[in-house]
Amino acid sequence: MPQHPALIVLDPAARDADAEHELLRAQGPAARIDILGVEAWSVSDPVLLKQLLTSPEVSKDGRRHWPGFDEAVRTWPLALWVAATNMFTAYGGDHRRLRRTVAPAFSARRVAAMRPTVEGIVEQLLDALEATPDGEVTDLRDRLAYPLPIAVIGRLLGVPDDRGNEFRSLVNDVFSTTLTPEEAAANAEQLYAMLDALIAAKRADPGEDMASVLIALGEEDADGRGLAEEELRDTFLLMINAGYETTVNLIDQAVTRLLTDPEQLAHVREGRASWTDVVEETLRHSPPVKHLPLRFAVTDIELPDGRTIAKGEAILASYAAANRHPGWHRDPHAFDVTRITKEHLAFGHGIHFCLGAALARMEAEIALEAFFDRFPDAALAPGEGDTGPVASLISNGHRSVPVRLRPRRD
């Protein structure tokens, strides 16, 4: 068997992601791919992926473990995904230190304490939707899925409400895989300028928010546990990115799946499934992130089929393809909220498991239950908007979710 079979070039716009994921799975546990000009191994077998995500032989630190790092930082549109200095790109002791510092922001107690805030934001958004005339189409991605996580992460970090839309536009482009390297660099520069302004504002007038707490840790901790300035800024970047786009897509996909298949919604309304079941099956079937760049082999890693990921080669965690692996779930392409086993990798696995998973789940459950209670006759409006996939190898959502909240009354 050849060491490097022909590369599968991933479509930057992800126009037919399901077919692409099928192609990846057909290559075995891992496939050689090209992601925007960078060669890597896409891992779509869930057993292998779990092993790699928990192995010390796999690193997130491109500076230390990827020979292509310097070139990627200069020319790769996704450079920010490997160049940021935070726990997302850290390895070993650095990762443990950074995660330990940020973890209190997402403790079970803090997440539970945010429930009334999330419920209040959802009610405000639904009140605004209530004014939509009967029969008129509205975009739920724009009016519910987007503003909820923006407001929640804004409250957590103390971002002023009037800055939310600015962050939204810039974060969208972090997840875009159709920008040129120059466009991506310009977007990163603008995003960092906003983060610098937020940090300066919090230093001048600290509050009870997590941003102020993290800034204080960096300034007061003398034993090396705090955050250096670059780590502080990139930690804010991570919290905004991870707390925003993923929750948008989770709500988007859940609403779309339930309205596409009313039988699934009936299971919830008639007590055969819960809103937790809806969220978990959405995370399995249509995870918010399709592929997550990048990891790197610290040493040669032999694959189950005899091939080898060589030391220094890049690894792409292909979560969406793994979640629907035929060896993991029965009838994996079916969306079934009554499915008994809904295990998935939507939030990762192992030491890099998403700290914000509980918060994202809570936001989605509250939003979905409240929306379908308020608008029991809601229906998709095919042909009334661009419902195609967002142009991204990373983000897994729709460009819009056009819905009629109530039928037109004659």
Automatic annotation (TrEMBL):
Pfam families: p450 (PF00067)
Keywords noted in UniProt: Heme, Iron, Metal-binding, Monooxygenase, Oxidoreductase
PROSITE patterns: CYTOCHROME_P450
Residue ranges that the Swiss-Prot or TrEMBL entry lists as coiled coil: none
UniProt-recorded Gene Ontology molecular function terms: heme binding; iron ion binding; monooxygenase activity; oxidoreductase activity, acting on paired donors, with incorporation or reduction of molecular oxygen
Stored Gene3D superfamilies: Cytochrome P450
Family: Belongs to the cytochrome P450 family.
Protein name per UniProt: Cytochrome P450
Species annotation: Streptomyces pratensis (strain ATCC 33331 / IAF-45CD)
